[in-house]
Design goal:
Elements (H helix, E strand, L loop, with lengths): L5 E10 L2 E5 L7 E5 L19 E6 L5 E6 L5 E5 L7 E6 L3 E6 L8 H13 L4 E5 L9 H14 L3 E3 L8 H8 L3 E5 L6 H8 L25 E4 L5 E4 L21 H4 L19 H7 L5 H12 L1 H4 L1
Parallel strand pairs: 3-5, 8-9, 8-11, 9-10, 11-13
Antiparallel strand pairs: 1-2, 1-4, 2-3, 4-5, 6-7, 12-13
Helix pairs in contact: 1-7
Amino acid sequence: MDKETIKQARVVKHTGSHYLVSDLPEWKLTKCIVRGKLRLTDSRTTNPIAVGDMVDYELQSDGTGIITKIYPRHNYIIRKSANLSKESHIIAANIDMAYLIVTLICPKTPLPFIDRFLVTCEAYSVPVKIILNKCDLYEEIKESVESFKDLYKSAGYTTIEVSCTTGQNIEILKEECKGKITLFAGISGVGKSTLINTLDSSLNLKTREISEYHLQGKHTTTFYEILPLRSGGFVIDSPGIKGFGLIEMKPEELSHYFPEMLRVLDNCRFAPCTHTHEPDCAVKKAVDEGIIAPERYISYLGMLEEGSKYR
């Protein structure tokens, strides 16, 4: 094969066995397929090639490509596959920033889900911020909003309050996305597609109403996909996530992925320390003194207890 027909690009969409790639920041799409042998390079995941991956492909005479090489990832977000107990799914790779979209009502995002997502970002070196969406609906729960912001500020995370209805902080978000590849993730119904449409109306992503019966969102995005923003940068739209199982995390290392615990755990009497029953535990002391939020510690204990279920 002539060297001129070998191209390097980023995977921007994955639909079954077919891929779209582009040499970002140029937006010129090429349809690709995968040679069978590459599908076995990572048997632990349902998608050995993920959106965001850098690949080589051989350009064919008809303008399509055959992916021949996958480059090592500098980071990624992975979760336990929903239907296959021993397998996992890579949500996206090589991300500059992950935005976890959260709502406090209609629907309410569970704290354990938030904490599992944040832990995974810490474990796999993905910078992350929290977007508190639908803020125009929170007039009657201002105390809950402040409590939520304080909870994650004390853990070391930035929360951005956003409303697509009023335009609150939309311009700030546009600026943050410029020159970056950002992932927008969250449970169904938190308004990911509406938010992306607000950032760039030309994308015209499908949106659906919240189910009144369950007060939950309905899936609108089917595949993970990188989209160009007219204001600059690229955003990864993702399907709503119902659950977030942790992958490949040893119990003795889990506390390292809670930034507020990492700051004090070197002061524990024992190493490693599970921060559950050991005497002179600096993490438990910090919880007692209000330095570490009880809600976060409870999430940590839940991840430990459910390790066999989620790993």
